[in-house]
Amino acid sequence: MIVSAEAVEEVRPVELAPDVLDEQLIGQLVDRARAGGVKLTGEGGLLQQLTKRVLEAALEGEITDHLGYEKHDPAGAGSGNSRNGTRSKTVVTDVGPVEIDVPRDREGSFEPQIVRKRQRRLTGVDDMVLSLSARGLTHGEISAHLAEVYGANVSKQTISTITDKVIDGMAEWQNRPLDPVYPVIFIDCVHVKIRDGQVANRPIYVALAVTVEGTREILGLWAGDGGEGAKYWLHVLTEIKNRGVGDVCMVVCDGLKGLPDAIETVWPQAITQTCVVHLMRASFRYAARQDWDKISKALKPVYTAPTAKAAEDRFLEFQEAWGDKYPAIVKMWSDAWAEFVPFLQFDTEIRRVVCTTNAIESVNARIRKAVRARGHFPNEQAALKCVYMAIMALDPTGAGRKRWTTRWKAALNAFEITFDGRLSIGRR
């Protein structure tokens, strides 16, 4: 997998034609190396020597094109410019550090492309650094990995410089136009530690949408101040709307106070659905550990009820059984009731996918893994860069995309019927 500044995606190698890649010649090279006691990999190995020869041959071809005549060709006499020896430099490659001789011209006008002036790493190394960083390795761990596996000395500062390349791509991604309508948007936030005078928890707001084709799309990342707040969510949702999202059928959230009002302000037709899992977790915070299983069994008939009326009846039974001991749980469910019951009006296919924020929890888990490895960040931009690379590396093979689409097919058919005509705008 190659990770670029714009995105993190799978790139398949190009197969060379049989007349270009001579297997018999390769076999002879390997046999001669083994017979001469030359290692295939490592310092001074066959791969390093081949890399050196290939790079130098390419550079020689470049200067020939630049000058217009072959080496030692009499046609170059009196041409006004000529070769002027070579200069040595060491470049870090996928097979380790390789010392190459870069040709020069007398006028100093030759600008090599395959290994540019002042370039000390081939692009494959930069891609490797970005890929390792996206998977949660710290700069020190990446530096140690490159030294141990490839014998390459890449400092932590250099690694930081490489990863900074994604910032331009992140800004473009954050401001890209969005679809006019989404069936569902899941919103949540993760907290990271940022050192701003002193280390403090800061929220990173994440919005994940399901498209009308059933694919997953992360709409953006936003760094907030202090704790998670509905006021900042209003800013986030407004920005999403300004990027082209005119309608959303449902918004699934964690039940933050004031959030339903913010959603209604931006998309008046959207249905706000509180995550059942968040309600259950919050219920357990008010209950003694020995009662968790009993409370879970008592609340299950509420959120699995066939209708909103049946759910209300089951909740009254729960209130009679546990209201005296845990009035805070009853109050919490009562306060969230208007945002809890909407999914009960839909069939099971829609219920199954919108009753929780599990769709975004898997994304949050990958983010937390990358964030946890670093401890804390020096500033907001460093935190956003880390989170951005983590989510861009979520599905390098595309297998997750296929599973996601398959899982949402039935639900999208139900959405098409329930929200008649609203999804068709997104398919135009």
Structure description:
The chain is built from 17 helices and nine strands. It is α/β, with parallel strands linked by helices and 428 residues long. The chain has a five-stranded mixed β-sheet, with helices on both faces. Helix 9 (276-285) runs antiparallel to helix 12, helix 14 crosses helix 17 (399-418) and helix 15 (358-374) crosses helix 16 (380-392). The two termini are 33 Å apart.
Short description:
This protein is an alpha/beta fold and 428 residues long. The chain has helices at residues 23-35, 46-67, 123-134, 139-150, 156-163, 166-174, 230-242, 259-266, 276-285, 292-303, 308-322, 327-335, 337-340, 348-354, 358-374, 380-392, 399-418, and strands at residues 2-3, 8-9, 83-93, 96-105, 181-196, 198-210, 216-223, 247-253, 271-274.
- Our Rg estimate from Cα atoms comes to 29 Å
- What is the makeup of the main sheet? 5 strands, mixed
Shape: elongated
Biggest sheet: strand arrangement: 7-6-5-8-9
What portion of residues belong to β-strands? 15-25%
- SS elements, strand count: 9
What is the helix fraction of residues, given as a range? 40-55%
Total DSSP helices: 17
Query: Which structural class fits the helix and strand makeup?
Result: alpha/beta
Uncertain spans: 1-16
Mind sketching the topology for me?
Elements: E1 2-3, E2 8-9, H1 23-35, H2 46-67, E3 83-93, E4 96-105, H3 123-134, H4 139-150, H5 156-163, H6 166-174, E5 181-196, E6 198-210, E7 216-223, H7 230-242, E8 247-253, H8 259-266, E9 271-274, H9 276-285, H10 292-303, H11 308-322, H12 327-335, H13 337-340, H14 348-354, H15 358-374, H16 380-392, H17 399-418
Parallel strand pairs: 5-8, 8-9
Antiparallel strand pairs: 1-2, 3-4, 5-6, 6-7
Helix pairs in contact: 3-16, 4-5, 7-8, 9-10, 9-12, 10-11, 14-17, 15-16
